[in-house]
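User: Let's play a game. I give you a shape written as tokens, and you guess the letters that built it. Ready? Here's round one.
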């Protein structure tokens, strides 16, 4: 099993999308790479914690490679927009790839460089080691499964 943390706007949509990807074994939504220890959703929404809404993705690399997984991720975000995806605006909605294994950095940068060829504007997606990840409240976990028809800026039909 490998793990990576992906941020792309509201974490509900990232999680719902990733759960449909063959080879993804488990997901968990939470708050990543901020300054406050164990923040609440309400605190993250104040934009003072520095955290991004994030999805921890556990995947089986014998089924899907990191490159394939990241290509899917890049396809559902606009990596050239800072602090916004869909209708969600604010620093907690930034795009990011936070890695747990230093060996993944080359693959991450390779996919970013390939994506950059598609855009005139610079990609602003953060790429950095995972500094911290705090689980979001239980009601956020698998939110769109519990609440079909809930807001999602990502097309989940694939």
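Assistant: Ready! My guess for every position:
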């Amino acid at each position: 099993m490998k793990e990576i943390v992906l941020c792309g706007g509201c974490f509900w949509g990232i999680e719902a999308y990733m759960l449909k990807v063959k080879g993804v074994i488990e997901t968990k939504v939470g708050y990543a790479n901020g300054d406050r220890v164990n923040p609440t959703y309400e605190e993250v929404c104040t934009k003072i914690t520095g955290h991004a809404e994030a999805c921890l993705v556990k995947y089986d690399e014998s089924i899907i490679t990191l490159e394939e997984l990241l290509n899917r991720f890049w396809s559902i975000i606009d990596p050239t927009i800072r602090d916004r995806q869909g209708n969600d605006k604010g620093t907690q909605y930034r795009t990011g790839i936070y890695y747990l294994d230093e060996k993944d950095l080359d693959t991450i940068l390779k996919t970013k460089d390939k994506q950059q060829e598609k855009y005139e504007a610079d990609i602003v997606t953060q790429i950095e080691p995972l500094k911290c990840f705090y689980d979001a409240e239980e009601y956020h976990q698998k939110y769109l499964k519990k609440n079909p028809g809930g807001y999602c800026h990502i097309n989940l039909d694939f």
